[in-house]
Amino acid sequence: MIAQRHVARATERKIDAIEFEMSRDIVKTRPPVVTKLDISEPTQPMDNKYHGMDFQSTLPMMLPTDYLLGQHSELSASAIAQSESVPLLEEAAILFASGQNQVAEQMLISVVKHPQHGIGTEIAWQMLFDLYRITHDQYKFESLSLDYANKFETSPPLWPENMPAMEQDTPQDQSSVNVTFPSKFDAGIVKNLEKLQQSSLKSHSVRLDFTRVKEVDPVGCGLLLRAIKNLKKSGHDLMLVHAQEFADKIRGILQVGRRDETEAPWLLLLEILQLLHFQKAFEEASMDYCVTFEVSPPAFEAPRNNVTSSFPEITLPEEMSDKFPMPVTVEGKMDILLKNIADQAANYNPLVLDCSRLDRVEFSASADLLSGLAPIAAKKGMSIRFEEVNYLVMMLFHAMGLKNIATISTRKH
Question: What are the two backbone dihedrals, phi and then psi, of residue 265, each rounded to the nearest 5 degrees?
Answer without folding.
Answer: -60, -40
